[in-house]
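Progress note, sequence design subtask.
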């Protein structure tokens, strides 16, 4: 009966092992550690040249909040698909929040890296709301405001942009910023920003690709004065597809080509607003607000 005896013991040991592993896993799963994480959300870009800008944002955020783990999500499905075909996996906001819930984050501060509170921001807000208080998920999720939200943001961003105008600018040179523009009511932020910029510097213009004001309206203004050179700069988080094609591209529809066809000397600067530390700090201030609210939970 020795064999039977050994078998019984194996069975007991086996059962014991299963029991402790499952109880350990269950504990790990349900144990609520008060863990707070940051999720940075951008529209995204498939241009490898934009990676340095995203990295710059991450470095600044890390320096401001060294104890928080930073995760990323891109909202654009087309861009995520394109990146996936190259082996670069970037989550959607919903995927990232689901994973962070599984990883045991109890609080998540989601920071929008959008410029205006338009459609993209509103969609993100819906996703964030859907994840708040989800059973067995994250306890508290908060969404940080985009670059422009309050009047003070317009003033802060305007001042930063005016301080960082192209180095080689001479008298008679003008700057034309390219904003995205939208059919969403938040398109008024572009006119609000233009007004603020003009109050401080009448040589700085802002137009949009898909909204109001348009480039033609800027050209009408330029034609009333003597212009030496036009600097084109993205009024966008990163210098992605719009900046590289619609703004600075060689095609005849690009802003550069359109202005050159009117005999203006043009220099396009392929650097998104996120390349400026002071701009990233506006987003960081918005992130700080929600992290404080989460700490209060
Ligand atoms: Co676009």
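Output:
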């Amino acid at each position: 009966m020795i064999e039977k005896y050994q078998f019984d013991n194996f069975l007991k040991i086996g059962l014991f092992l299963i029991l402790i592993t499952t109880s350990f896993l269950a504990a790990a799963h349900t144990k609520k550690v008060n863990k707070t994480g940051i999720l940075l959300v951008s529209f995204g870009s498939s241009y490898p040249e934009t990676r340095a800008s995203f990295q710059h944002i991450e470095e600044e955020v890390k320096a401001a909040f060294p104890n928080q783990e930073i995760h990323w999500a891109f909202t654009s499905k087309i861009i995520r698909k394109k990146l996936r075909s190259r082996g670069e996996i970037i989550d959607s906001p919903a995927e990232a929040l689901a994973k962070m819930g599984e990883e045991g984050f109890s609080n998540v501060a989601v920071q929008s890296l959008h410029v205006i509170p338009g459609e993209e921001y509103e969609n993100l807000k819906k996703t964030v709301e859907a994840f708040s208080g989800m059973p067995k998920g994250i306890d508290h999720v908060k969404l940080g405001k985009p670059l422009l939200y309050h009047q003070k943001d317009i003033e802060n961003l305007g001042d930063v942009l005016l301080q960082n105008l192209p180095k080689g600018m001479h008298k008679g040179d003008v700057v034309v910023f390219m904003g995205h523009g939208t059919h969403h009511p938040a398109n008024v932020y572009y006119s609000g920003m233009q007004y603020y910029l003009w109050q401080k510097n009448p040589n700085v213009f802002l137009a949009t690709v898909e909204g109001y004001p348009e480039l033609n309206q800027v050209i009408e203004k330029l034609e009333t004065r003597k212009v030496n050179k036009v600097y084109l700069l993205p009024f966008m988080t990163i210098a992605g597809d719009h900046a590289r094609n619609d703004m600075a591209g060689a095609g005849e529809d690009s802003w550069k080509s359109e202005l050159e066809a009117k005999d203006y000397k043009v220099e396009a600067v392929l650097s998104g607003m996120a390349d400026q530390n002071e701009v990233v700090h506006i987003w960081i201030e918005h992130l700080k607000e929600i992290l404080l609210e989460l700490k209060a939970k």
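The CA atoms of residues 66 and 116 lie 27 Å apart. Work on this subtask will continue into the next period as scheduled.
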